[in-house]
Amino acid sequence: VPMPAKIFDPNGPGSSRNNIFGLPFSRQEAALILLPVPWEVTVSYRSGTARAPEHIFEASRQIDLPEREEGVGWKQGIFMPHPDRQLLIQSDFLRKQAELCINFLNEGGRIEENRYLKESVKQINEGCWKMNQWVEDQVDTILGEGKKVGLVGGDHSTTLGLLRALGKIHGSFGILQVDAHCDLRKSYLGFHYSHASVMANALEAIPSLERLVQVGSRDFCEEEINRIREAQGKVVSFGDDRIRERLYEGESWKTICGEIADQLPAKVHLSLDIDGMDPKLCPHTGTPVPGGLEDGQLFYLLDLLAKKGKQLISFDLVEVSYAHDDWDVIVGARILFRLSELLLTSRAQPT
Fold first, then answer.
1. pLDDT tens digit sequence for 133-163
2. Which of 63, 182, 237, 288 has CA atoms 20 to 30 A from the CA of 263?
3. Which strands, in side-by-side order, build the sheet including 32-37?
4. Is residue 68 a contact partner of residue 14, using CB atoms and an 8 Å limit?
5. Pair type for strands 148-153 and 311-318
6. C-alpha to C-alpha distance for 265 and 323, rounded to whole angstroms
């Protein structure tokens, strides 16, 4: 397994001179690039996700580097660049405008009757489109270098550019979405590229997207239920209530995971909104919902996908929030490490 020429002790403390997880790899040496996207313009409740990438980076140095049975993926190299400061500044600027619009709507106002806020919504939609184009361009470059990519958000709206880039080089693929929400609204609060619309946008924008399998959803609206029904099998839902009911009645998590795997094509992108997990793991995420997966359930599912011959081609980890204390980013950093390991050791099955 390739290792950098510089001296590195994986049993020592994570050096602040090194990169993500205390690893010594440069961008050129790394097989996996973790792309930070510091963006949270359209979050509709609590904020804090835009600054999560930099705090996950700091927390990651406390993670030990274990050797697992499935391989030692990190030795192939993982690198995370610093978050783009201009993107963060733009997010902060547009977020203030979005807050004005959201508060106005919550008070019963109509955006179309307010000239100033109509212009704000237009600027927000344009800014979110440009952000996703930036993400797509960054991912195009990473994939063009023959590297793997994982996205670290930011809110869930940041994923669309990554998915568009995947569609251009992978052809047919599926999305495994672990999320408390379906994110299938046509638009939300007038924002076309909202975190609540990312999967609706993906279904429309990516012809090669074969199937969207949603796991853990437990907070959705009538529009989203209708969209799932109208998708004629292209969107498959394993809702949290139904999963729990089956477990309570004696079915095994292994059986349920097998059904989830059978719904996915050979190539899989994992879209992990942290609010898909039990809120004790992410108490400060933007819109926490009771229920959700344990971390052990998530990684059992991902391990089973690999055993069934599914190839993990990329992932996004979004909606981790930095607020009040470090717990959310500590959990986020540890999940990020496991996802990185799984991505680096995932292989295409022979045809």
1. 999 999 999 999 999 999 999 999 999 999 9
2. 288
3. 78-79, 32-37, 148-153, 311-318, 267-273, 173-178, 209-215, 235-238
4. no
5. parallel
6. 37
Please, are residues 109 and 305 in contact by the beta-carbon 8 Å criterion?
no
Answer for the pair 237, 228: CB distance below 8 angstroms, yes or no.
Answer: yes
Give the model's pLDDT for residue 115: 87
pLDDT in tens, 82-104: 999 999 999 999 999 999 998 99
Given this model, what pLDDT does residue 348 score?
73
Q: Average pLDDT in the 39-55 region?
A: 90
Rounded CA-CA distance 76/331 in Å is: 23
Number of H helices, E strands in the chain: 10, 8
Q: What share of the chain is helix, strand, coil (3-state, %, to 5)?
A: 45, 15, 40
Burial of 293 (0-12, 13-18, 19+ CB in 10 A): buried
Residue ranges of the alpha helices (H) in 221-294? 222-230, 240-248, 253-262
Cα–Cα distances (Å) from 17 to 43, 86, 298, 332, in that order, read 34, 24, 32, 21
DSSP 8-state secondary structure symbol assigned to residue 268: E
pLDDT band at 1 (very low <50, low <70, confident <90, very high): very low
Query: Could you tell me if 168 and 16 are in contact, meaning their C-beta atoms sit under 8 angstroms apart?
Result: no
